[in-house]
Amino acid sequence: MCHLLATYGTLRDDNDSGAPWNPPFIQGIASATTGRVTGYRLFFNPKLNYPFAISTGDANDSVVVRVLAWPTREQFEQKLDEADKMEGVDYERKMVDVFIESSSNTIQAHFYVARSELIDDQCQLIPSGDWLRRHES
After folding, report:
1. How many domains does one find in the chain?
2. Domain for residue 121, yes or no?
3. What is the pLDDT of residues 9-68, one digit of tens each?
4. How far is residue 27 from each of residues 12, 121, 128, measured CA to CA in Å?
5. Which SUPFAM superfamilies match (predicted)?
6. Distances, alpha carbon 15 to alpha carbons 1, 8, 117, in Å
7. Would residue 14 count as lying in a domain?
8. Is residue 134 one of the residues assigned to a domain?
9. What range does the domain containing 65 cover?
10. Helix (H, G, I), strand (E, B) or coil at 23
11. Which residues pair with 36 in a beta bridge?
């Protein structure tokens, strides 16, 4: 079983949104690495203050992620269970390939994909695919 979680929004270890669930979720991480997942676009609804990745299947689209790992399998499984509960029925957890920029390697990680029905006229595309750059044009 893979013990890595690719996070792109309020579950990122470097999240800057002030989401109250973030500090307890990232507590105890053993490592965090920046990467990219291709074939997805990142959207943001300002009323909700969290993003969602939608599958496009286009290799030109990508989402910046932080790949999180915890020290033990048990801790990882507990965090994955927490994330499943937070993401709920609006997201599906998938295994994806993540390109790690610092090493030019590709690894597998769990990744949450939103249902396309979540996109409405309030949603804005984050062109960079990076949650931390969501306020840039």
Report:
1. 1
2. yes
3. 999 999 998 999 999 999 999 999 999 999 999 998 888 888 999 999 999 999 999 999
4. 11, 35, 27
5. Gamma-glutamyl cyclotransferase-like
6. 26, 9, 25
7. yes
8. no
9. 4-128
10. helix
11. 64, 99
